[in-house]
TrEMBL record:
Entry similarity comment: Belongs to the zinc-containing alcohol dehydrogenase family.
Phylogenetic placement of the source organism: Bacteria, Bacillati, Actinomycetota, Actinomycetes, Kitasatosporales
Residue ranges constituting the Enoyl reductase (ER) domain according to the UniProt record: 14-341
SUPFAM superfamilies hit by this protein: GroES-like, NAD(P)-binding Rossmann-fold domains
Annotated organism of origin: Streptomyces capoamus
Name recorded for this polypeptide: alcohol dehydrogenase (NADP(+))
Cofactor(s) demanded: Zn(2+)
EC number: 1.1.1.2
Length: 346
Protein backbone atom coordinates (compact mmCIF):
# COMPACT_ATOMS: atom_id res chain seq x y z
CA UNK A 1 0.00 0.00 0.00
CA UNK A 2 1.08 3.55 -0.69
CA UNK A 3 -0.20 6.63 1.09
CA UNK A 4 -0.95 9.48 -1.29
CA UNK A 5 -2.35 12.98 -0.88
CA UNK A 6 -5.81 13.63 -2.24
CA UNK A 7 -8.77 16.00 -2.15
CA UNK A 8 -11.85 14.34 -0.73
CA UNK A 9 -15.42 15.11 0.29
CA UNK A 10 -15.64 13.74 3.87
CA UNK A 11 -19.44 13.53 3.70
CA UNK A 12 -22.31 14.36 1.35
CA UNK A 13 -22.49 18.07 0.57
CA UNK A 14 -19.39 18.81 2.70
CA UNK A 15 -16.65 20.89 1.06
CA UNK A 16 -13.70 18.94 -0.32
CA UNK A 17 -10.52 19.06 1.76
CA UNK A 18 -6.97 17.79 1.58
CA UNK A 19 -6.45 14.34 3.06
CA UNK A 20 -4.51 11.15 2.43
CA UNK A 21 -5.71 7.83 1.01
CA UNK A 22 -4.18 4.40 0.54
CA UNK A 23 -3.52 3.02 -2.93
CA UNK A 24 -3.15 -0.74 -3.32
CA UNK A 25 0.28 -2.25 -3.99
CA UNK A 26 1.03 -2.57 -7.70
CA UNK A 27 -0.25 -6.03 -8.71
CA UNK A 28 0.91 -8.25 -11.57
CA UNK A 29 -1.23 -6.49 -14.19
CA UNK A 30 -1.35 -3.05 -12.57
CA UNK A 31 0.08 0.26 -13.63
CA UNK A 32 1.01 2.97 -11.12
CA UNK A 33 0.28 6.40 -12.56
CA UNK A 34 1.64 9.73 -11.34
CA UNK A 35 -1.42 11.87 -11.94
CA UNK A 36 -0.60 15.24 -13.51
CA UNK A 37 -4.06 16.62 -14.26
CA UNK A 38 -7.64 15.78 -13.31
CA UNK A 39 -10.69 17.32 -14.98
CA UNK A 40 -13.78 18.34 -13.02
CA UNK A 41 -16.88 16.70 -14.47
CA UNK A 42 -20.40 17.79 -13.53
CA UNK A 43 -21.01 14.23 -12.34
CA UNK A 44 -18.28 14.68 -9.71
CA UNK A 45 -20.54 17.27 -8.12
CA UNK A 46 -23.70 15.16 -8.45
CA UNK A 47 -21.97 12.30 -6.67
CA UNK A 48 -20.14 14.31 -4.00
CA UNK A 49 -23.50 15.87 -3.09
CA UNK A 50 -25.46 12.60 -3.36
CA UNK A 51 -27.61 14.05 -6.13
CA UNK A 52 -27.68 10.59 -7.73
CA UNK A 53 -28.41 8.65 -4.55
CA UNK A 54 -26.41 7.24 -1.67
CA UNK A 55 -22.65 7.50 -2.15
CA UNK A 56 -19.46 6.24 -0.50
CA UNK A 57 -17.51 8.65 1.75
CA UNK A 58 -14.88 9.89 2.03
CA UNK A 59 -15.08 10.43 -1.73
CA UNK A 60 -12.16 11.38 -3.96
CA UNK A 61 -13.87 12.36 -7.21
CA UNK A 62 -12.22 12.60 -10.61
CA UNK A 63 -12.60 10.43 -13.70
CA UNK A 64 -10.76 12.58 -16.22
CA UNK A 65 -7.23 11.58 -15.35
CA UNK A 66 -4.02 12.23 -17.28
CA UNK A 67 -0.56 11.30 -16.04
CA UNK A 68 2.63 9.34 -16.52
CA UNK A 69 3.35 5.69 -15.70
CA UNK A 70 5.84 5.39 -12.84
CA UNK A 71 5.75 1.64 -12.16
CA UNK A 72 4.34 -1.47 -13.84
CA UNK A 73 3.53 -4.95 -12.54
CA UNK A 74 5.51 -7.99 -13.74
CA UNK A 75 2.72 -9.11 -16.10
CA UNK A 76 2.05 -5.75 -17.74
CA UNK A 77 2.62 -5.79 -21.50
CA UNK A 78 0.85 -2.66 -22.77
CA UNK A 79 2.68 0.07 -20.85
CA UNK A 80 6.15 1.05 -19.72
CA UNK A 81 7.48 3.50 -17.15
CA UNK A 82 7.37 6.98 -18.67
CA UNK A 83 4.33 6.38 -20.89
CA UNK A 84 1.71 9.16 -21.04
CA UNK A 85 -1.61 7.68 -20.05
CA UNK A 86 -5.18 8.41 -19.08
CA UNK A 87 -7.94 6.86 -17.01
CA UNK A 88 -11.61 7.59 -17.56
CA UNK A 89 -14.84 6.64 -15.82
CA UNK A 90 -14.14 2.95 -15.20
CA UNK A 91 -11.26 0.93 -13.77
CA UNK A 92 -12.66 -2.59 -14.14
CA UNK A 93 -15.60 -4.71 -15.34
CA UNK A 94 -16.48 -8.42 -15.35
CA UNK A 95 -14.55 -9.06 -18.63
CA UNK A 96 -16.82 -12.04 -19.38
CA UNK A 97 -20.27 -10.80 -20.35
CA UNK A 98 -21.27 -10.22 -23.95
CA UNK A 99 -20.79 -6.46 -23.65
CA UNK A 100 -17.33 -6.74 -22.09
CA UNK A 101 -16.33 -9.29 -24.71
CA UNK A 102 -17.24 -6.96 -27.54
CA UNK A 103 -15.38 -4.04 -25.98
CA UNK A 104 -18.34 -2.20 -24.53
CA UNK A 105 -17.26 -2.54 -20.93
CA UNK A 106 -19.25 0.56 -19.98
CA UNK A 107 -22.37 -1.55 -20.44
CA UNK A 108 -21.00 -4.55 -18.47
CA UNK A 109 -23.97 -6.69 -17.43
CA UNK A 110 -22.53 -7.02 -13.93
CA UNK A 111 -21.84 -3.28 -13.76
CA UNK A 112 -18.56 -1.56 -14.56
CA UNK A 113 -16.38 -0.57 -11.61
CA UNK A 114 -16.40 3.22 -11.44
CA UNK A 115 -13.13 5.07 -11.01
CA UNK A 116 -14.51 6.45 -7.74
CA UNK A 117 -17.61 6.04 -5.57
CA UNK A 118 -17.56 2.32 -6.33
CA UNK A 119 -16.19 -0.88 -4.80
CA UNK A 120 -13.33 -2.62 -6.61
CA UNK A 121 -12.91 -6.37 -7.04
CA UNK A 122 -10.68 -6.30 -3.94
CA UNK A 123 -13.67 -5.14 -1.90
CA UNK A 124 -12.12 -1.72 -1.29
CA UNK A 125 -13.69 1.59 -2.28
CA UNK A 126 -12.27 3.19 -5.41
CA UNK A 127 -10.84 6.71 -5.27
CA UNK A 128 -10.57 9.00 -8.26
CA UNK A 129 -8.25 11.49 -9.85
CA UNK A 130 -8.10 14.37 -7.38
CA UNK A 131 -4.98 12.71 -5.99
CA UNK A 132 -1.26 12.29 -6.60
CA UNK A 133 -1.25 8.69 -7.82
CA UNK A 134 -3.58 5.89 -8.85
CA UNK A 135 -3.14 2.14 -9.42
CA UNK A 136 -5.18 0.72 -12.31
CA UNK A 137 -5.27 -2.59 -14.19
CA UNK A 138 -3.56 -2.07 -17.54
CA UNK A 139 -6.67 -3.13 -19.46
CA UNK A 140 -8.49 0.00 -18.27
CA UNK A 141 -5.66 2.45 -18.98
CA UNK A 142 -5.53 4.54 -22.17
CA UNK A 143 -2.52 5.81 -24.08
CA UNK A 144 -2.39 9.57 -24.60
CA UNK A 145 -0.72 10.28 -27.97
CA UNK A 146 2.34 12.58 -27.98
CA UNK A 147 0.50 15.25 -29.95
CA UNK A 148 -1.86 15.95 -27.04
CA UNK A 149 -0.87 17.97 -23.98
CA UNK A 150 -1.86 16.16 -20.81
CA UNK A 151 -3.84 19.10 -19.38
CA UNK A 152 -6.19 19.46 -22.37
CA UNK A 153 -6.30 15.68 -22.82
CA UNK A 154 -7.66 14.98 -19.31
CA UNK A 155 -11.27 16.04 -20.06
CA UNK A 156 -11.30 13.83 -23.16
CA UNK A 157 -11.45 10.81 -20.85
CA UNK A 158 -15.07 11.62 -19.94
CA UNK A 159 -16.37 14.64 -21.87
CA UNK A 160 -14.52 13.58 -25.03
CA UNK A 161 -15.63 9.96 -25.15
CA UNK A 162 -19.16 10.76 -23.96
CA UNK A 163 -19.68 12.86 -27.08
CA UNK A 164 -17.42 10.95 -29.51
CA UNK A 165 -19.22 7.65 -28.96
CA UNK A 166 -22.73 8.73 -30.08
CA UNK A 167 -21.30 10.84 -32.94
CA UNK A 168 -19.39 7.78 -34.08
CA UNK A 169 -22.24 5.31 -33.52
CA UNK A 170 -24.81 7.44 -35.38
CA UNK A 171 -22.34 8.17 -38.20
CA UNK A 172 -21.73 11.90 -37.95
CA UNK A 173 -19.67 12.84 -40.97
CA UNK A 174 -19.68 14.59 -44.34
CA UNK A 175 -23.20 15.29 -45.61
CA UNK A 176 -24.73 14.90 -42.14
CA UNK A 177 -26.41 17.70 -40.23
CA UNK A 178 -25.67 17.42 -36.53
CA UNK A 179 -27.06 19.60 -33.75
CA UNK A 180 -25.48 19.87 -30.32
CA UNK A 181 -27.77 20.98 -27.51
CA UNK A 182 -25.92 22.93 -24.82
CA UNK A 183 -22.45 24.42 -25.07
CA UNK A 184 -20.82 23.40 -21.80
CA UNK A 185 -18.11 20.88 -20.93
CA UNK A 186 -19.73 18.13 -23.01
CA UNK A 187 -21.22 20.35 -25.70
CA UNK A 188 -18.00 22.11 -26.59
CA UNK A 189 -16.32 18.74 -27.14
CA UNK A 190 -19.26 17.54 -29.24
CA UNK A 191 -18.90 20.60 -31.48
CA UNK A 192 -15.16 20.13 -31.96
CA UNK A 193 -15.44 16.40 -32.64
CA UNK A 194 -18.47 16.58 -34.96
CA UNK A 195 -16.76 19.34 -36.93
CA UNK A 196 -13.57 17.27 -37.23
CA UNK A 197 -15.66 14.31 -38.42
CA UNK A 198 -16.85 16.51 -41.29
CA UNK A 199 -20.46 17.07 -40.25
CA UNK A 200 -22.34 20.36 -40.61
CA UNK A 201 -22.69 21.43 -36.98
CA UNK A 202 -25.38 23.56 -35.35
CA UNK A 203 -25.35 24.61 -31.70
CA UNK A 204 -28.72 24.88 -29.98
CA UNK A 205 -28.16 26.87 -26.82
CA UNK A 206 -30.56 28.63 -24.50
CA UNK A 207 -29.25 32.04 -25.57
CA UNK A 208 -26.78 33.48 -28.06
CA UNK A 209 -24.40 34.42 -25.23
CA UNK A 210 -21.66 31.99 -26.34
CA UNK A 211 -22.27 32.30 -30.09
CA UNK A 212 -18.80 33.65 -30.93
CA UNK A 213 -17.18 30.83 -28.97
CA UNK A 214 -19.38 28.22 -30.63
CA UNK A 215 -18.45 29.36 -34.11
CA UNK A 216 -14.75 29.43 -33.16
CA UNK A 217 -15.00 25.89 -31.81
CA UNK A 218 -16.22 24.68 -35.20
CA UNK A 219 -19.99 25.21 -35.34
CA UNK A 220 -21.44 26.32 -38.68
CA UNK A 221 -24.65 27.68 -37.18
CA UNK A 222 -25.84 28.80 -33.76
CA UNK A 223 -29.44 29.20 -32.61
CA UNK A 224 -31.17 30.08 -29.35
CA UNK A 225 -33.72 27.57 -28.06
CA UNK A 226 -35.41 30.40 -26.15
CA UNK A 227 -36.45 31.86 -29.51
CA UNK A 228 -39.59 30.09 -30.87
CA UNK A 229 -38.50 31.00 -34.42
CA UNK A 230 -35.61 28.53 -34.05
CA UNK A 231 -38.09 25.65 -33.99
CA UNK A 232 -40.03 26.93 -37.01
CA UNK A 233 -36.92 27.56 -39.04
CA UNK A 234 -35.14 24.28 -38.25
CA UNK A 235 -38.09 21.84 -38.30
CA UNK A 236 -37.12 18.53 -39.95
CA UNK A 237 -33.46 19.56 -40.41
CA UNK A 238 -31.12 17.26 -38.50
CA UNK A 239 -29.87 13.72 -38.97
CA UNK A 240 -28.59 13.64 -35.41
CA UNK A 241 -29.10 15.73 -32.31
CA UNK A 242 -26.81 15.16 -29.33
CA UNK A 243 -28.27 16.66 -26.18
CA UNK A 244 -25.74 17.39 -23.45
CA UNK A 245 -28.19 19.17 -21.17
CA UNK A 246 -29.38 17.80 -17.84
CA UNK A 247 -32.00 20.48 -17.20
CA UNK A 248 -35.63 19.64 -18.05
CA UNK A 249 -36.36 20.27 -21.75
CA UNK A 250 -39.15 20.04 -24.29
CA UNK A 251 -38.16 16.76 -25.94
CA UNK A 252 -41.11 16.89 -28.31
CA UNK A 253 -39.85 20.20 -29.67
CA UNK A 254 -36.33 18.82 -30.12
CA UNK A 255 -37.64 15.71 -31.90
CA UNK A 256 -39.51 17.99 -34.32
CA UNK A 257 -36.13 19.20 -35.56
CA UNK A 258 -35.15 15.73 -36.81
CA UNK A 259 -35.46 14.46 -40.36
CA UNK A 260 -37.11 11.12 -41.08
CA UNK A 261 -34.95 8.40 -39.44
CA UNK A 262 -33.11 11.00 -37.39
CA UNK A 263 -31.96 10.33 -33.83
CA UNK A 264 -32.02 12.42 -30.67
CA UNK A 265 -29.33 11.05 -28.37
CA UNK A 266 -29.13 12.11 -24.76
CA UNK A 267 -25.84 12.11 -22.92
CA UNK A 268 -27.20 14.37 -20.21
CA UNK A 269 -30.29 13.38 -18.25
CA UNK A 270 -32.78 15.48 -16.32
CA UNK A 271 -33.25 14.14 -12.78
CA UNK A 272 -37.04 13.92 -13.19
CA UNK A 273 -38.79 11.52 -15.60
CA UNK A 274 -40.14 13.13 -18.75
CA UNK A 275 -43.63 13.06 -20.25
CA UNK A 276 -43.52 12.64 -24.02
CA UNK A 277 -46.20 12.31 -26.67
CA UNK A 278 -44.96 9.31 -28.67
CA UNK A 279 -46.32 10.77 -31.88
CA UNK A 280 -43.10 12.82 -31.69
CA UNK A 281 -41.18 9.69 -32.72
CA UNK A 282 -43.87 7.81 -34.65
CA UNK A 283 -44.17 10.53 -37.26
CA UNK A 284 -40.84 10.37 -39.06
CA UNK A 285 -39.66 7.00 -37.70
CA UNK A 286 -37.43 8.83 -35.25
CA UNK A 287 -35.17 7.45 -32.56
CA UNK A 288 -34.95 8.76 -29.01
CA UNK A 289 -31.79 7.27 -27.56
CA UNK A 290 -29.15 7.54 -24.87
CA UNK A 291 -25.44 6.86 -24.72
CA UNK A 292 -22.96 6.49 -21.85
CA UNK A 293 -19.21 7.13 -22.24
CA UNK A 294 -17.58 4.47 -24.48
CA UNK A 295 -15.63 1.22 -24.22
CA UNK A 296 -11.88 1.07 -23.75
CA UNK A 297 -11.18 0.37 -27.42
CA UNK A 298 -13.40 3.24 -28.55
CA UNK A 299 -11.89 5.57 -25.95
CA UNK A 300 -8.43 4.86 -27.38
CA UNK A 301 -9.80 5.46 -30.89
CA UNK A 302 -11.19 8.82 -29.68
CA UNK A 303 -7.84 9.87 -28.18
CA UNK A 304 -6.04 8.96 -31.41
CA UNK A 305 -8.68 10.85 -33.44
CA UNK A 306 -8.34 13.93 -31.23
CA UNK A 307 -4.53 13.88 -31.50
CA UNK A 308 -4.75 13.52 -35.28
CA UNK A 309 -7.12 16.51 -35.50
CA UNK A 310 -5.39 18.62 -32.84
CA UNK A 311 -8.40 18.54 -30.55
CA UNK A 312 -8.12 19.11 -26.82
CA UNK A 313 -10.61 20.51 -24.33
CA UNK A 314 -10.82 24.24 -23.64
CA UNK A 315 -9.74 24.41 -20.03
CA UNK A 316 -9.27 26.64 -17.00
CA UNK A 317 -6.36 25.23 -15.02
CA UNK A 318 -6.81 25.55 -11.25
CA UNK A 319 -5.02 24.53 -8.07
CA UNK A 320 -6.54 21.85 -5.85
CA UNK A 321 -7.41 24.44 -3.20
CA UNK A 322 -9.76 26.10 -5.69
CA UNK A 323 -11.90 23.00 -6.21
CA UNK A 324 -14.84 24.04 -4.01
CA UNK A 325 -15.07 27.40 -5.73
CA UNK A 326 -14.83 25.64 -9.08
CA UNK A 327 -17.80 23.42 -8.14
CA UNK A 328 -19.93 26.50 -7.51
CA UNK A 329 -18.87 27.96 -10.84
CA UNK A 330 -19.71 24.73 -12.70
CA UNK A 331 -23.18 24.79 -11.13
CA UNK A 332 -23.55 28.40 -12.30
CA UNK A 333 -22.37 27.42 -15.84
CA UNK A 334 -19.49 29.82 -15.31
CA UNK A 335 -16.64 27.87 -16.87
CA UNK A 336 -15.15 27.89 -20.35
CA UNK A 337 -15.27 24.97 -20.70
CA UNK A 338 -13.70 22.56 -18.26
CA UNK A 339 -11.87 23.06 -14.98
CA UNK A 340 -8.73 20.96 -14.74
CA UNK A 341 -6.87 20.53 -11.46
CA UNK A 342 -3.10 20.72 -11.56
CA UNK A 343 -2.51 17.80 -9.19
CA UNK A 344 1.00 19.05 -8.33
CA UNK A 345 -0.85 21.51 -6.07
CA UNK A 346 -2.44 18.76 -3.95
ZN1 LIG B 1 -17.71 12.62 -16.26
ZN1 LIG C 1 -19.05 -7.49 -18.21
Amino acid sequence: MTTVAAYAAPAAKAPLERTTIERRAVGEFDVLIDIKFAGICHSDIHQAREGWGEAIFPMVPGHEIAGVVSEVGSGVTKFQVGDRVGVGCMVDSCRECENCLRGEEQYCLKGMVGTYNAVGKDGQPTYGGYSEKIVVDENYVLRIPDGLSLDVAAPLLCAGITTYSPLNHWNAGPGKKVAVVGLGGLGHMAVKIAHAMGAEVTVLSQSLRKKDDGLKLGADHYHATSDPKTFEELAGTFDLIVSTVSAPMDFGALLSLLRVDGALVNVGAPEEPIALNLFSVIGGRKTLAGSMIGGIRETQEMLDFCAEHGIGAEIELISAAEVNEAYERVLASDVRYRFVIDTATI
